[in-house]
């Protein structure tokens, strides 16, 4: 399930990146064609006649240049998001791997020091109670 989730995320961001790149290419080609038209002799003749078509071509060129700038920004943002997602995935995977490799220390029960007392079998006195009485061998509790 996790693998499919990551595949879908990568696919979605990759699709957005591909669409942004396609839009960049389309705008760049259109801007190139409009600039070629503006730099042609026919355009100079139309401009000399003060034709409204010349201003329409110049306005269209300006619009596509703005669209190209926006497409470049969107492509950069999509690339950063995709790169960040890939970086996050690899870093989190390596951190999980390092965490799994750390040796797990077994819990050692803390032995509380046993205070002094007497053996219930023979009555021997001890400053610290041992597990068994050294005199009679009775288990101390």
Please characterize this protein's 3D structure.
- This protein has 141 residues and is mainly alpha-helical.
- It contains three helices and two strands; from the N terminus they run H-H-H-E-E.
- It has a two-stranded antiparallel ribbon with strand order 1-2.
- A hairpin with a 6-residue loop joins strand 1 and strand 2.
- Helix 1 runs antiparallel to helix 3.
- The longest helix is centred in the middle third of the chain and has 50 residues, at 52-101.
- It starts with a helix and ends in a 15-residue tail after the last strand.
- The relative contact order is 0.09.
Concise description?
By secondary structure, the chain is an all-alpha fold. 67% of the residues lie in helices and 3% in strands. Helix 1 runs antiparallel to helix 3 (52-101).
The arrangement of helices and strands along the chain is HHHEE
Helix proportion of residues, in percent? Answer: 55-70%
Number of strands: 2
Give the overall shape: rod-shaped
Q: Which strand-content bin applies to the residues?
A: under 5%
Number of helices: 3
Which stretches are low in confidence, meaning pLDDT under 50 for 5 or more residues running? none
Sheet with most strands = 2 strands, antiparallel
Indicate the topology:
Elements (H helix, E strand, L loop, with lengths): L1 H37 L2 H8 L3 H50 L15 E2 L6 E2 L15
Antiparallel strand pairs: 1-2
Helix pairs in contact: 1-3
């Amino acid at each position: 399930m996790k693998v499919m989730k990551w595949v879908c995320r990568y696919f979605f961001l990759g699709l957005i990146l591909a669409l942004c790149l396609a839009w960049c290419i389309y705008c760049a080609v259109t801007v190139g064609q409009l600039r070629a038209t503006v730099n042609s002799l026919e355009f100079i003749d139309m401009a000399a006649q003060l034709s409204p078509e010349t201003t329409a071509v110049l306005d269209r060129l300006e619009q596509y240049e703005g669209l190209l700038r926006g497409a470049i920004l969107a492509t950069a943002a999509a690339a950063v998001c995709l790169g960040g997602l890939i970086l996050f995935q690899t870093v989190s995977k390596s951190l999980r791997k390092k965490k799994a490799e750390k040796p797990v220390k077994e819990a050692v029960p803390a032995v509380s020091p046993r205070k002094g007392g007497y053996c219930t079998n023979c009555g021997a006195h001890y400053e610290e109670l041992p597990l068994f009485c050294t005199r009679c061998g009775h288990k101390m509790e």
